[in-house]
Design brief:
The complex is a heterotrimer.
Chain A: H1 2-11, H2 16-21, H3 30-61, H4 68-88, H5 91-94, H6 96-123, H7 132-153, E1 158-159, E2 172-173, E3 176-177, H8 178-200, H9 202-212, H10 214-219, H11 224-250, E4 252-253, H12 259-272, H13 277-299, H14 311-325
Antiparallel strand pairs in A: 1-4, 2-3
Chain B: H1 4-7, E1 14-23, E2 26-36, E3 41-45, H2 52-59, E4 67-72, E5 75-76, H3 82-88, E6 90-92, H4 105-111, H5 121-126, H6 129-146, H7 167-180, E7 185-189, H8 197-214, E8 217-221, H9 225-231, E9 234-239, E10 242-247, H10 249-253, H11 256-269
Parallel strand pairs in B: 3-8, 3-9, 6-7, 7-8
Antiparallel strand pairs in B: 1-2, 1-4, 4-5, 9-10
Helix pairs in contact in B: 4-7, 6-7
Chain C: E1 3-4, H1 14-33, H2 36-40, E2 44-47, E3 50-51, H3 52-68, E4 79-80, H4 84-110, H5 122-129, H6 134-157, H7 160-178, H8 180-190, H9 193-199, E5 206-207, H10 208-238, H11 241-265, H12 268-293, H13 302-316, H14 329-351, H15 356-375, H16 380-383, E6 395-397, E7 401-403, H17 408-430, H18 433-443, H19 445-450, H20 455-481, H21 491-504, H22 509-523, H23 539-553, H24 562-568, H25 570-580
Parallel strand pairs in C: 1-4, 2-5
Antiparallel strand pairs in C: 2-3, 6-7
Classes of the chains: A mainly alpha, B alpha/beta, C mainly alpha.
């Protein structure tokens, strides 16, 4: 109904249907609408990158690695520290692209390491327990990482150094701000690399085999433990990438930043179909767009005040609706052997 | 042993009509027609992957039926939740023993009477007379069911967690649990699997007693041919989801198609 | 099990030493940089030897020292008799752990990493060097590490009796030190100031002489009394039938009497603490029904707490913007329970069919949505958004007494009454048809359904009952605090309640109560200070670590439920039964 009212309003702001539903709604101009879509895509691309980690781990081990959002936070924090150090050294201004690449590399490494250590310490001993046990453990890990960041780096928000001019909002390309363009491009590139790795390399094939059936894969001579470690490392790397992009786009980072994107990325993984790489990205984009456009398109025409506060609620609502209507996601989910019925 | 031709005129308690179950492209069951008469013991046999357990799962609604119908006492079981089927009077055991392992033996049997009891939270909280009577009844019935297996599951064992039981006792407890749901029809999925010969011989007579003393109709999946020969009034042979033979044990065991599909090796060995 | 002679002292498993010592060294560095030692240094435990800051720094070397001697016990596998092998190995791993701090001291002296690491400070360096030169720190930490590691290894050498005595001495002294403010407060109420004045130093901490006296006393008591205590315990557990019921009733009556009498002699501080613990006991009991009995992992439990608090506030406060019926608290309580139950039904109905892990995430989402709704402008006409609802009047109990935040003792009695109610509800339900069905669903949902249980309804029931129990604490918190803000209902609260339930022992009422008492009482709740107020910055970190550790090492919790402990002792049971037959 809200959507109908929105469409009615876009056609003619003064038509009776729209004003009956909510007389105060103003509608959107074309430029505003396009802006929202673009920021939704940029946001969604980051959710998609994080979602890959959830999706791959769930696809292989069948449990939700709740702490994955915290890996993203670790990535953003590493990026913050590294980029500030580079800025102090003057490199950030003189050679932005080079330093950004260094920062990305560093963050990807640190995040992979975090994810691998996490797997080894907290999840491997629980490999064969009921799946709620590692989930609870991962909540503990998430708590720990978040608070470790507080005690080590302090509780206040920290910021990335000043970005070069072409990344600022007033400089646009086809109406898209440079930072968003960078985010979308970098996310697409990482996704492509991951895709190639999983689909075309020996390690990637091993991963798919383990996801299909770990026991059989082990019988075929695949080192299951090592493959799982690689999956965590890859997922961590993607989260680290997302962390840097987040920092570039919003500049401000804080210890609690992993929680909401983490939950939304998980929603994205479910919406796209868990265990499915393309699905994670599709899910991320749809969640990002829904939460950027949804409040204004559906809630505001219905007469709800202060819709932008309800952005987060939109993502959750989408997750819930998806799980109720089509729990296997847009693309069919691929679950580990013991979870299929 | 009853002759299939003689009983087929009665109204069957359980009947499947053109029952098909598909998993993706795989036809686990295709157009299966089976009839079970009241107070009959029917064995379902067949090689691995023949669709025996799928048949049980279809009856107890844990898999989706693709085509056809299942009638119990003349009424369709389709589109019912598994618990509703149990309340109708069909109980089952599982091929891999699935007990509530952290609950006691007694609790396992008590909880299975759920659908025939009705005290709610308020009764429990106010500790009403009705609640206490019902609890006592549940307990009494549970003990009655457990004592069917002699001294094996009663006494101190009743208050022990189910995981502390021996393998054979777990199988027995599964049957006790099915009995406690007050069914008309019991589906036993490989009841003697993993038992030693003495235990399985004992359980075989128990299956007969279940019918004679407790008035249950029984469908049993079994690989152990000595058990099948002993208990069954009638044997249904499945292969690749289709019924390839039906009749009493001797009739079926001499059927060339069956011998070829399944019994062949073991019979020629003998 | 067979024991074989000890290993020769010098055939150490060097790799194991290096690995354990290395991990501990990293842990030591983390602890040091987390600022814990500096903050906790203010708290003296035994004056003037030991502050909590230094205690934190010797825990890890001691732990690795002890752990090094751990042998996996499997049936048919021989175990070595503990000997100097264990002590030496423990000392070496301890030395490595201490060496982590030595290295840190050197780095602290020569580098400045204050930019990302906020606690990289001269204060920390000063603490590590004891005010001396760096080389002193290097040596002293290796020495301390070696010493504590060796002590940990020595613990393996003690016989079972000596081991128990050592543990009981350590626990007595530690709890006397940790519970200082509580003990002083109660002693004051009982007129025993003289005793506590002698025990504790003026600036906090036990006098070292008193500590020795206490240790000797508890040691002798332990040696003398241990056997008897055990005897009583086994006697109690062997009672059967009515005698058992009577013994249990007597125990419960005794505990209750103590809880009723104790607050009369305690000051405000203790009563406040008790009330906080009680509120979390109440919340944890509610969550225990959902998680512990029915096996539904509800991560958004805080939502019901929030709804309970807000409903109570709206119904009783005159300042509530949209409707303000200004009901008496007891009448409002009925509405609170009903409305929270309905919200539980509303949230539960769609999610209860989902797979367990999806359900966890979705309830988490709902928990957050509820808070966002209370915070939003959209509903600010009802709940005042971030400004919250204030001036909630005290609760009037049948005109007998007024219960408000200024009177923590009365609040505690109110909490106690509701805890008793919640315990009764949990206890009765667990032993009913409903409770058995919950457990069956927790054990195996498919089979439960095949046994005729309508799993959806049964799970929904658990969800709603849990929500209702949670709403009680909401209503109490409304009168206790006198105001309510959305920021009190962060997801952290859900997590802390979950940690309490898991730490105490899922599905076990006594365990859950003990969990709340230990965690909330000592460390504190998400916003409530505990006895160790110095820990407030670190308690969430510790909760996280504790949750991981519990799941890895002791998933059955502090006090496992009867079922779980039966599982652990199943061999004994079967053996006894065999002998009896």
């Amino acid at each position: 109904m809200g959507l109908l009212a929105f469409i009615a309003q876009e056609i003619d702001p003064n038509n009776p249907f729209a004003s009956w539903v909510n007389p105060d709604a103003t509608g959107l101009t074309g430029a505003q609408f396009r802006g929202l879509i673009i920021s939704g895509i940029a946001q969604g691309a980051m959710y998609g990158l994080i979602a890959l980690g959830y999706s791959m781990v769930y696809g292989i081990l069948g449990f939700i690695n709740f702490a994955h959002g915290e890996v993203f936070m670790v990535g953003a924090m590493t990026g913050m520290i590294a980029s500030n150090k580079l800025a102090d050294a003057g490199l950030w201004e003189t050679n932005f692209i080079g330093s950004l690449l260094i920062v990305m590399l560093l963050s990807v490494l640190v995040c992979s390491l975090t994810a691998v250590v996490m797997e080894k310490v907290a999840y491997r001993p629980l490999r064969n327990t009921p799946r709620l046990i590692p989930l609870i453990t991962s909540i503990g890990v998430s708590f720990f990482l978040q608070n470790a960041s507080i005690v080590l780096l302090g509780p206040s928000a920290k910021s990335y150094p000043e970005m070069p001019d072409w990344l600022k909002d007033q400089y646009t390309f086809l109406g898209i701000s440079g930072a968003r363009l960078l985010v979308i491009f970098a996310a697409a590139a990482s996704m492509a690399v991951l895709w190639y790795y999983v689909e075309n390399t020996k390690n990637g094939k091993a991963m798919r085999a383990v996801a299909e059936d770990a026991e059989i894969a082990a019988l075929m001579g695949i080192n299951v433990n090592r493959t799982i470690v690689k999956v965590f490392a890859l997922g961590g790397a993607m989260a680290g990438m997302a962390g840097i992009l987040w920092g570039v786009l919003f500049r401000s980072v804080i210890h609690s930043m992993g929680f909401l994107p983490g939950i939304k990325a998980f929603s994205a993984a479910v919406v796209g179909g868990i265990g499915h790489l393309g699905g994670a990205m599709t899910g991320g984009l749809s969640i990002g767009m829904a939460e950027s456009v949804g409040p204004l398109m559906i809630l505001e025409p219905l007469g709800v005040n202060g819709v932008s506060q309800l952005r987060d609620a939109v993502a959750f609502a989408m997750l819930i609706v998806m799980l109720l209507l089509r729990p296997s996601g847009i693309f069919d989910e691929r679950l580990p052997a013991e979870d299929r019925t | 042993m009853a002759n299939p031709e003689a009983t087929s005129t009665d109204k069957p308690i359980l009947e499947t009509r053109k029952l098909s179950v598909d998993f993706g492209g795989l036809h686990a069951l295709s157009a299966l027609d089976i009839q079970v008469q009241r107070n009959e013991i029917v064995s379902v046999i067949g090689p691995n992957g023949a669709g025996k357990t799928t048949l049980f799962n279809a009856i107890s609604a844990t898999v989706e039926v693709s085509k056809g119908d299942i009638l119990f006492e003349g009424k369709s079981l389709l589109n019912l939740e598994p618990n509703a089927i149990t309340s109708r009077g069909i109980a089952r055991t599982f091929q891999t023993v699935r007990l509530f392992t952290h609950m006691t033996v007694l609790e396992n049997v008590m909880v299975s009477q759920h659908c025939h009891t009705k005290q709610n939270a308020f009764g429990a909280l106010l500790y009403t007379k009705a609640f206490r009577t019902e609890e006592a009844e549940i307990r009494q019935r549970a003990e009655e069911v457990l004592s069917f297996f002699g001294t094996r599951l009663v006494g101190y064992r009743m208050d022990q967690p189910a995981f502390s039981l021996s393998y054979a006792n777990r199988r027995r407890l599964e049957i006790a649990r099915a009995m406690a749901t007050q069914p008309k029809l019991i589906l036993l999925d490989e009841p003697v699997a993993g038992m030693n010969p003495v235990e399985s011989a004992e359980l075989t007579t128990m299956i007969g007693r279940l019918r004679d003393e407790w008035d249950f109709t029984i469908v049993v999946i079994e690989h152990d041919m000595s058990v099948v020969r002993e208990v069954s009034d009638r044997v249904v042979v499945l292969d690749h989801g289709e019924k390839i033979a039906e009749g009493n044990y001797d009739h079926v065991s001499n059927n060339p198609e069956v011998v070829e599909a399944y019994l062949g090796k073991s019979m020629t060995k003998k | 099990m067979t024991t074989i002679p000890p290993r020769p002292t010098f055939t150490q498993d060097w790799l194991r030493i290096a690995r354990m010592g290395g991990i501990a060294a990293v842990g030591q560095t983390f602890i040091a940089l987390s600022n814990m030692p500096v903050r906790l240094d203010e708290r003296l435990l035994i004056k003037p030897i030991l502050s909590m800051g230094y205690l934190i720094l010797i825990v890890l070397p001691f732990a690795v020292g002890y752990r090094y001697g751990h042998q996996i016990k499997r049936e048919g596998m021989p175990t070595f008799t503990p000997s100097m092998y264990e002590v030496l190995g423990g000392a070496l791993s301890g030395a490595l752990a201490g060496g982590g701090l030595s290295l840190l001291a050197v780095l602290l002296r020569h580098f400045d990493l204050r930019d990302p690491l906020v606690n990289w400070s001269p204060i920390l360096l000063n603490l590590l060097t004891f005010g001396n030169a760096t080389w002193f720190a290097v040596i002293i930490w290796i020495v301390i590490g070696t010493g504590t590691g060796a002590a940990g290894g020595l613990l393996r050498l003690l016989g079972p009796r000596a081991y128990r005595t050592a543990i009981s001495v350590a626990i007595t002294v530690a709890s006397a030190a940790v519970l200082e403010s509580l003990i002083v407060d109660i002693a004051k109420g009982l007129g025993l100031e003289n005793l506590t004045d002698r025990l504790y130093a003026s600036r906090g901490g036990i006098e070292w002489l008193s500590a020795i006296v206490l240790a000797v006393a508890s040691g002798t008591l332990g040696v003398l009394g241990r056997g008897r205590f055990r005897q009583a315990k086994t006697q109690l557990s062997q009672l059967e039938g009515t005698a058992r019921t009577q013994a249990n009733a007597a125990l419960i009556a005794l505990t209750l009497a103590a809880l009723i009498v104790l607050p009369l002699f305690a000051g405000k501080l203790t009563n406040e603490l008790l009330a906080n613990v009680g509120i979390f006991v109440l919340l944890a009991l509610g969550l225990n029904i959902v998680v512990g009995l029915a096996g539904i992992l509800d991560l958004g439990y805080v939502a019901f707490f929030a709804v309970g608090t807000y409903t109570a506030a709206v119904l009783t406060a005159a300042t509530s913007p949209r409707i303000s019926p200004e009901m008496p608290w007891l009448l409002a309580l009925i509405f609170v329970v009903v409305i929270t139950g309905l919200v539980g039904l509303f949230i539960g109905a769609p999610v209860i069919r989902m797979r367990g892990d999806y359900l966890a995430i979705v309830t988490l989402g709902f928990g957050e949505i509820i808070r966002l709704l209370f915070l939003s402008d959209w509903l600010s006409g009802w709940f005042n958004g971030a400004q919250g609802l204030v001036q909630i009047p005290p609760a009037n109990i049948f005109g007998l007494t007024e219960i408000g935040g200024t009177e923590p003792r009365r609040v505690f009695y109110l909490v106690l009454a509701f805890c008793a109610l919640a315990i009764y509800v949990s206890w009765r339900l667990e032993r009913s048809r409903l409770g058995r069905a919950w457990m069956a669903v927790r054990e195996d949902e498919t089979v439960a359904e095949a046994m005729g249980i309508n799993t959806v309804n049964i799970k929904l029931m658990a969800f709603v009952v849990g929500a209702m129990l949670g709403s009680f604490s909401g209503a109490i918190v409304a009168v206790k605090v006198g105001s309510v803000f959305p920021s009190s209902f962060l997801i952290v609260v859900s997590m802390v309640i979950l940690v309490v339930v898991i730490f105490g022992g899922m599905g076990n009422i006594v365990g859950v109560i003990a969990g709340a008492a230990v965690l909330i009482g000592v460390l504190g709740g998400p916003r409530q200070p505990g006895l160790l107020a110095e820990f407030s910055e670190f308690k969430l970190l510790i909760y996280g670590a504790l949750l991981i550790w519990m799941m890895l090492a002791r998933p059955e919790g502090l006090i496992p439920s009867m079922r779980r402990s039966r599982e652990l002792h199943q061999h004994e049971i079967t053996q006894d039964a065999w002998l009896k037959n």
